[in-house]
Amino acid sequence: MNTNRLLLSTLAGFFGYFMTGYLFYVVLFGDLLASTNPGMASIQAEPNMIAIIIGNLAAGFLLALIFERWAGIRLVFSGAIAGATIGLLMALGYDSMIHGTTTLMTWNGVLVDVFIYTCISAVAGALTAFGLSYKRV
């Protein structure tokens, strides 16, 4: 396993999660999420950027590790499909449990969030695969 390539692809995945997450969660779907999730009223006025960065780095590293160590994914399209699949399953599992144990989400909110996270993970997966395929590292 090439450590430099793993770090590069982790940063590429982080960038995909961070930038696409902002675009989808804040710019495009912020109002829709607020209307479908009663728990959105408890969102902090100022987000904790350190926590967001750590979370996106962890998600980027997860994709990079899976792609590099177990799946051998190097093609952008394959990375997008794998990222979307992983994101869909993770979000569906997590959001369903949150809905089942709290009043933070409705089923509509679960579906919207799963769709958004699947799209974000597809972008991050494509960038992660691109980082793994980069030849100069």
Which keywords apply here?
single chain; 137 residues; mainly alpha; 80% helix; 0% strand; elongated
Outline of the structure:
The chain has five helices and no strands. With 137 residues, the protein is an all-alpha fold.
* Extended strand count: 0
Main β-sheet, in a few words? none
Number of self-contained structural domains = 1
**Range of helix content:** over 70%
Class from helix and strand fractions: mainly alpha
Distance between the termini: 12 Å
Order of helices and strands: HHHHH
The chain-level mean pLDDT equals 92
Number of helices: 5
Q: What portion of residues belong to β-strands?
A: under 5%
Can you walk me through this structure?
- The protein is an all-alpha fold and 137 residues long.
- The chain has one domain.
- Helices cover 80% and strands 0% of the residues.
- The chain has 5 helices and no strands.
- It has helices spanning 3-28, 30-36, 49-71, 76-101, 107-133.
- Helix 1 packs across helix 2 (30-36), helix 1 (3-28) packs across helix 3 and helix 3 (49-71) packs across helix 5 (107-133).
- The model has no long low-confidence stretch (mean pLDDT 92).
Protein topology:
Blueprint: H1 3-28, H2 30-36, H3 49-71, H4 76-101, H5 107-133
Helix pairs in contact: 1-2, 1-3, 1-5, 2-5, 3-5, 4-5
